[in-house]
Structure prediction request, 396 residues.
Amino acid sequence: MRRSLPLAGLRVVEFSHMVMGPTAGLILADLGADVIKVEPVGEGDKTRRLGGSGAGYFPAYNRNKRSLAVDLKSPEGQALARRLALSADIVTENFSQGALEGLGLGAAALRAENPRLIYCSMKGFLTGPYQDRAALDEVVQMMGGLAFMTGPPGQPLRAGASVNDVMGGMFAVIGILAALHERDRSGQGQTVRSGLYENNAFLVAQHMAQAVVTGTPAAPMPVRVSAWAIYDVFATSDGSQIFVAVVSDTQWVKFCEAFALGDLLADESLATNTRRVAARDRLIPRLRALFLQRPRSEIEAACETAGLPCAPIRRPDELFDDPHLNHPGAMLTLTLPGGVPLPLPALPLELEGERLGLRRDLPEPGEHSLAVVEELGLRLEEIDRLVALGVISFPA
Prediction:
């Protein structure tokens, strides 16, 4: 771990759930900010108890945070949360439109009392006709063209991860960092907003541009006309699959040499990428037959030796055994309830050659409630009163 982290000394109060808001908090926390996650009293954030495809949300996006469990439905809880928010440098939230405003915790109310506050809201849509609509990652993928591009024709398919939620949290952090820089100059905070739909539109901008440049709407990725002749997934003799790419004429020479394809290398009709693209119908079947006779490990080794892009097709759970991800610092080991260890990727950053590490494990609901309210100056008798009223809670 670095002795000093870039955002050390900054306090962030996080009102969030699911993925988008927690992702922003995770990034800020990993970078050194003191992120206080405000959760409901008792069992805490409902995301902790999701099953199925949501079972990994909480452990993936909530390390390095402190947990304050408070009842925001009570006047006392609202007053406490307000006091905490006003002590912060940054407040983040990703609840439905107007939810925090109704509790006196909106941007206008808090910034009126603390002009230096940076208030970041993460929503489904930014300002415009859709701004009051409910949204999910899958909703914006469907309406924003990403699902159309991912699935085969007539079968829109969401991407295999929460790409908009995660990137929406990342853009929120970019906005927050910009606001912090501005605050250093002006002394004033500001309101930052990040939108799922706008994030999705940013992702498919290349396909929007392609339609104008070529005069033809972009085809879904499974049936697109590739810019390169060899840019495919191939089956191998051991029942596996591997992606292999040849994206330059220099790589074509290396590819033919690596796989003893002297006849193809000598074929002038395949000498340039443009010619190879035109000859895909006869080239690709030959390569499919070739790779089907070799195990994946052999193909991967040959490509790596030749400096050719390739990738085995793997499930996410297979990444636990990836030698690169098991390099020191690349994974952070968290602890699930019951003491189960869970290694997960660190932020994909190096600062001065160092990865950002783990300072705090996944918090229990309200694990840091006592410390946080004491920092706010509450006396023991007031804390006892709030506990008795069920306004704040600690772990059992």
In short: The radius of gyration is 26 Å.
